[in-house]
Amino acid sequence: MTDTLQNRRPLKVRAAVWPRALAARLAAAKVSPDTISAASVAFAAVGGGLLLLAATPDPVLRGVCLIAAALCVQLRLVCNLLDGLVAVEHGRGGPAGPIWNELPDRLADVLLLVGAGYGARALGLPGAEIAGWIAAMLAVTTAYVRELGRGLGQPADFSGPMAKPQRMAVLTAACVISAFEPLWGGRGQVMVVALAVIAVGALVTVVRRTHRLAGRLGEDPSSRRT
């Protein structure tokens, strides 16, 4: 993974002691940032699988799967944080970095959001899988608009309201709350509401980023088509 200063998501946690210490250990062990990026997809795949397994009549097993899925979501984000630190602060970015910088994130979004949708569908909520696919599609589109802007020579736009950190925060909260759903007889409603929130927020994000990009292009004569 290659992470440049011009394409870094502004994250306060990047300045914290623990990620920097962990990144230093990984760099000292000669762990490639691309490998860390690949690990983020592995955590997302496990998380998506756990969201499917959570569609069980056993309330205890369901709760365990959902809490573990929430942990996988957060571990995916930790990998996203560490790959950039190892690549930039420790100079270990490779030539294929731009691919590893984007593609794993898109796969991770789809695995988690679609997994959440199918998990809710398996609990008996018709159409829940559609909510998962719509949320995933819009999540990918937010990144597409950002990369479209970069391809047109504009700075990366990480604005929300439903950029990746916010999407994963909503999904994590939904997993934790859903773990207690059996107490009130819920059958995936919390997850579907979360997916709807992610989808609507991502749509707003797409529109906002597109509007900001169009404005920047309008101010930059060199970017206009002839």
Describe it:
- The chain has helices at 17-28, 33-53, 59-88, 97-122, 128-151, 164-178, 189-219.
- The chain starts with 16 loop residues before the first helix and ends in a 7-residue tail after the last helix.
- The longest helix is centred in the C-terminal third of the chain and has 31 residues, at 189-219.
- The mean pLDDT is 91.
- It is mostly helical.
- The radius of gyration is 19 Å and the shape is globular.
- It contains 7 helices and no strands.
- Helix 2 packs antiparallel against helix 3 (59-88), helix 4 runs antiparallel to helix 7 (189-219) and helix 5 packs parallel to helix 7 (189-219).
- Helices cover 70% and strands 0% of the residues.
- The chain has a single domain (5-217), classed as CDP-alcohol phosphotransferase transmembrane (TM) domain (Four Helix Bundle (Hemerythrin (Met), subunit A), Up-down Bundle), CATH 1.20.120.1760.
